[in-house]
Design goal:
Elements (H helix, E strand, L loop, with lengths): L3 E4 L2 E4 L3 E2 L5 E2 L17 E4 L2 E4 L4 E2 L5 E2 L5 H14 L8 H4 L3 E6 L14 E7 L5 E8 L5 E6 L1
Parallel strand pairs: 9-12
Antiparallel strand pairs: 1-2, 3-4, 5-6, 7-8, 10-11, 11-12
Length: 151
């Protein structure tokens, strides 16, 4: 397969390849999750593909979880206290909710739109007063989380 040479009907694999047909890549880059962990810390990298060992997680890097709290729900309380000074984490906001950069925007059409290089989640959540508020959550290549919230 171009990843080794055949000598006396036995494959001698080039570096980074193994297996009887040299078809198993030892490169772990395809298994790297967005948080910098191999298979999101929830699987093993076998031949350049993640084998997810945590049954809740699937996908090429074991990052997809149907039953987990979504990014929006997970960050809702922190966005609420940082942007509007209310909600369940109001009292602990400065300790618990400083893990993202926050930018206020005037309206929903000023929020970052899909198509930018960083993975982006558009969120619509209810606040403690039963009003909707809108925000986006993205993580850049340096691992910094950025939130844009509509005032």
């Amino acid at each position: 397969t171009g990843k080794g040479v055949c000598k006396c009907r036995v494959c001698e694999c080039f570096p980074n390849f193994t297996g009887s047909a040299c078809d198993c890549s030892l490169d772990t880059l395809p298994c790297m999750a967005s948080n910098g962990q191999i298979c999101n810390g929830r699987g093993t990298c076998e031949c350049g593909t993640c084998n997810c060992t945590d049954p809740k997680f699937q996908g090429p890097t074991c990052e997809m979880c149907q039953t987990c709290l979504g990014v929006c729900a997970e960050h809702k309380d922190c966005v609420q206290c940082r942007a509007f000074d209310k909600g369940e984490k109001k009292a602990t906001c400065s300790q618990e909710c400083m893990h993202f950069n926050m930018t206020r925007v005037e309206s929903r059409d000023k929020l970052p739109q899909p198509g930018q290089p960083d993975p982006l989640s558009h969120c619509k959540e209810k606040d403690v007063d039963d009003c909707w508020f809108y925000f986006t959550y993205s993580v850049n290549s340096n691992g910094e989380a950025n939130v844009h919230v509509v005032e």
